[in-house]
Design goal:
It is a single chain. By secondary structure, this protein is mainly alpha-helical. Among the domains are: 69 residues, Alpha Horseshoe (Serine Threonine Protein Phosphatase 5, Tetratricopeptide repeat), CATH 1.25.40.20; 66 residues. Helices cover 52% and strands 0% of the residues. It is built from 13 helices and no strands. Helix 5 runs antiparallel to helix 6 and helix 5 packs parallel to helix 7.
């Protein structure tokens, strides 16, 4: 789609703002960091629009997210020091309405953190089925690998109450390549499930032989 001169100027201005402001965004804690190290929250999340949208997405402040994006569309792409975007934060906090809004406004469903986590990894880590479903509808890579060789299915396999999310992932075209994929410690999703939950039978139903019955 060809942009008008006015639209092109606005796009270039916003890209410039994103570039200029990124270096000034302080280290706001990501969900994964906070889970492991209990890092304090951003002491002043309203200091800049970039910091504010990350905070708002995590806290479920839909109206604020909408207001910020209406003024600066580039904000859907900003991220913290670890690479977590507003979409990552909304996904791990299970704020479905914000996930939907961000995707409608062209947030990248395959955005990567420094550790190569996608928003789908974030949703799956916390067993947020509806957020995962929206990401899949938006074209996220269901077989995306982190630096540790972890796919979203590896994360879901660790959860005892993840029956619905496992079924969702296993129903996706292309997931077969993931079933026997080991992570960096040599475990497949099925291996993990066998140790940590009662969902192993779901993987058995997804074996190729069952698909021909």
């Amino acid at each position: 789609i060809k942009m008008s001169d006015e639209e092109n100027d606005r796009f270039e201005e916003e890209q410039s703002l994103l570039t200029d402001n990124f270096e000034t965004i302080p280290h706001t804690p990501s969900a994964w960091e906070q889970d492991i190290y209990d890092i304090d929250e951003d002491p002043d999340p309203h200091a800049t629009p970039e910091r504010e949208i990350l905070w708002a997405a995590e806290q479920g402040e839909l109206d604020l997210v909408k207001s910020l994006v209406s003024k600066h569309t580039y904000l859907v792409h900003v991220h913290d020091k670890d690479g977590y975007t507003a979409l990552h934060r909304a996904c791990y906090s299970n704020h479905l309405s914000i996930v939907e809004f961000l995707l409608e406004n062209h947030a990248n469903p395959n955005a990567r953190t420094a550790d190569q986590w996608t928003p789908l990894h974030s949703a799956c880590k916390w067993n947020n089925v509806e957020c995962a479903e929206k990401l899949i509808e938006a074209g996220t890579d269901i077989n995306a690998l982190t630096n540790g060789g972890i796919t979203p299915l590896h994360l879901v396999a660790e959860l005892a109450d993840s029956h619905n999310l496992i079924e969702l992932l296993l129903s996706q075209p292309g997931i077969q390549a993931n079933l026997k994929l080991p992570n960096s410690t040599g475990d497949t999703p099925k291996d993990i499930t066998a140790r940590k939950s009662t969902n192993e039978r779901l993987f058995e139903y997804s074996e190729p032989c069952f698909n021909y019955i």
